[in-house]
Amino acid sequence: MGHRLTQIATRTGDAGTTGLGNNQRVSKNSLRVHAMGDVDELNSNLGLLLTEPLPDDVRALLQRIQHELFNLGGELSVPGYQLLQTDAVLALDEALAHYNARLPRLQEFILPGGSRAAALAHVCRTVARRAERSLVALGQEEAIHDAPRQYLNRLSDLLFVLARVLNRAAGGDDVYWQSERLQQQGD
């Protein structure tokens, strides 16, 4: 593939519009641009998570996911184009089952936290949920494929599970929510 970017500061967006991959100009506040931005933010947060010490298998999985998210961004940048396939969703399902099988069953809600890597995985999870909501909103206005929405849904679940895995890899455990109701029952 040849070089695609020849100039970064084009000034073509100064009026509040941006160009899509099909050369169409749209408002930077459009639902499509919001979805693209949320996916980009998720990918950037995964990049931050990847700077942490991680088990090799988790690192390889997250790196693959980054490439798939970049594909998703490309798909969103060209209305009607399909790049992310259902096999990517199935691969997340498999990873989710694999990592969740290693974990103890949850008895209580957990709080985002524990190790730094786990906390960053929780941040990625919440951004994935927002990106999913952005895709749902876009899908209510324009036709979009199912795989991207399903992918983000599974990814947010996987990131929750990976946060638990990462806490254990760091020698810790989940941070459990201590509700007032539960504390009163124990008294």
TrEMBL record:
The chemistry this enzyme catalyses reads: 2 cob(II)alamin + AH2 + 2 ATP = 2 adenosylcob(III)alamin + 2 triphosphate + A + 2 H(+)
GO molecular function list: ATP binding; corrinoid adenosyltransferase activity
Record EC number:
2.5.1.-
Matching entries from InterPro entries are given as: CblAdoTrfase-like, CblAdoTrfase-like_sf, PduO-typ
**Does this entry carry the keyword Transmembrane?**
no
Q: Which UniProt keywords apply?
A: ATP-binding, Cobalamin biosynthesis, Nucleotide-binding, Transferase
Where is the region Disordered?
Answer: 1-24
Q: Name one GO biological process term.
A: cobalamin biosynthetic process
Q: Please list the residue ranges annotated as the Cobalamin adenosyltransferase-like domain.
A: 8-165
- SUPFAM superfamilies from the UniProt entry: Cobalamin adenosyltransferase-like
Q: How does it assemble?
A: Homotrimer.
Family note: Belongs to the Cob(I)alamin adenosyltransferase family.
Q: What is this protein called?
A: Cobalamin adenosyltransferase
Q: Which organism is it from?
A: Tepidimonas aquatica
